[in-house]
C-alpha cells in the first residue's frame, strides 16, 4: 500500500544554466524537474543526518576512547576474514 504525503509548493530561484541542466537530466531520466529537486533535497538532508551521526559517534569516542586491546583484536580478526581476490 502506497501512501502519499501532502506536498507544499515552494518558490526556489535558480539561474538559467542550472535550470537547463536540470531539464536535460530530467528528460534523460524520464522524470520531472520537480522530482529531481525533491530527490536532491532528500539527498542533502540524508547527508546532513549522516554527518550529524558521524559527529555524535566521534564525540562519543572522545568521551570514551576505544580500548587499544579491543581495536587490535578486531584488526586481527578482520585480517583473518579478508577474502582472497
Automatic annotation (TrEMBL):
Example GO BP: regulation of DNA-templated transcription
Pfam short name (any one): RHH_1
Superkingdom, taxonomy of origin: Bacteria
Domain Ribbon-helix-helix protein CopG: 11-39
InterPro entries reported for this sequence: Arc_rbn_hlx_hlx (IPR013321), CopG (IPR002145), Ribbon_hlx_hlx (IPR010985)
Protein name stated in the entry: Ribbon-helix-helix protein, CopG family
The organism's taxonomic lineage, starting at the top: Bacteria, Bacillati, Actinomycetota, Acidimicrobiia, Acidimicrobiales
